[in-house]
Design the sequence.
């Protein structure tokens, strides 16, 4: 895997070292997991924000609910086993 150098404050490096030692992993994998967890949380936060904005607009929220009802109807289309 190709790597690059990223500058972080000494305190962050010490924290990475401590976490790596405590989890018996290397600093790169601890950092990679932290970044991935941050990315996932960021995506969820943005999604929640978008839904909150959508829900605040009653006209758009009504369209969303109507679309959901249309998709829910497909659950009972009795196509089990058919291909």
Sequence:
């Amino acid at each position: 895997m190709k790597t690059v150098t990223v500058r972080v404050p000494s305190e962050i490096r010490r924290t990475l070292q401590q976490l790596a030692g405590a989890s018996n992993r290397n600093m790169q994998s601890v950092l990679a997991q932290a970044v991935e967890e941050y990315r996932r949380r960021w995506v969820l936060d943005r999604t929640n924000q978008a839904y909150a904005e959508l829900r605040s607009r009653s006209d758009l929220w009504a369209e969303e609910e109507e679309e959901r009802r249309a998709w829910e109807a497909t659950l009972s289309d009795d196509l089990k086993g058919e291909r």
In short: Residues 70 and 76 are 11 Å apart (CA to CA).
